[in-house]
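Model: Ready when you are.
Researcher: Fold this.
Model:
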Amino acid sequence: MPVTKSTTKKTARGRPRKSEAEEGAFRARVIGEARNLFARDGYEGVSMRRVAQAVGCSPAQLYTLFGGKRDLLRHIWEDAFSELADELHNASAEKDPLKRLHALGDAWCRFWLSNPDHYRSIFLIEDKVNEPGERYFVETSESLGALDLIAEAVSESMKKGLLRPDDVAAVSQLFLCGLQGVVFNLITIPEFPWTAKEQMATRMITALIDGVSPH
């Protein structure tokens, strides 16, 4: 009797491959868990193994999506600044450049104060370049281009005589530094008895604009 080969297909072993939507959702969950860990324990206090444990996968599975811990931090950075860029673009709809500058400053402060873990995982962790060919996040992030909206508002305000003529980049950066001071203190020292902290960002924006006004 001739021997015939079975036409029954063997069942594939292992886990079924995730769909594109499932993989995207998993990637987002990893980034969210990593952000929480970085915000709480700092960069040095977090390992890829800890992130894998937090999301319930193996370190090997994690490395199929992210090249390492710094790559995870880069994704956290990009996601946060992409969300912020959307807020800044919405705020830039104001036609009057001085009012627009105020709206941009308000959007900046409101975003970080509403997302303190985003802030901690980005501004309380130093981006370090360790390998040849690596570049700082600020050099490669496309979302940081939204900061040009602040410089544009400053430049237009100067041209219309609403602000004193000055170096646009210097004034724009000082504006951001002033806002960062408010955000940093409200997020990192919440136990301090801040007076009218809900109004602090608005008052700082007004003070910074008044400081470079022509009157």
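Researcher: Now this one.
Model:
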Amino acid sequence: MHAVVRLASWTAAFVAAGYVGRATIIDGTALSLVWPAAGVALLWLATSSRRTVAADTACFATATFVVNASTGASPALATVFVVANLIQAGLVLALARWWVPEV
């Protein structure tokens, strides 16, 4: 039950931060000025364990798509945002683990 509550909490925090970011869409584009959900995503995935990483990643990707698609991004662009967010989060986490291996 703890894992379900954890997953729901992180998903809700990410979605809330995503909608805040999407509220800053630049006129005439589908790009946001800021993306505070990136910080939530990093904290979320950094706290994943081997047991939860698959579900966390799947929910993160789904939430990214839903937030972007529901705020005006086309399905294709929302998919690009999912891929970009996954790459960015994965890269930052890999670099953090490389630079600070004892954490």
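Researcher: Key takeaway?
Model: The mean pLDDT is 92.
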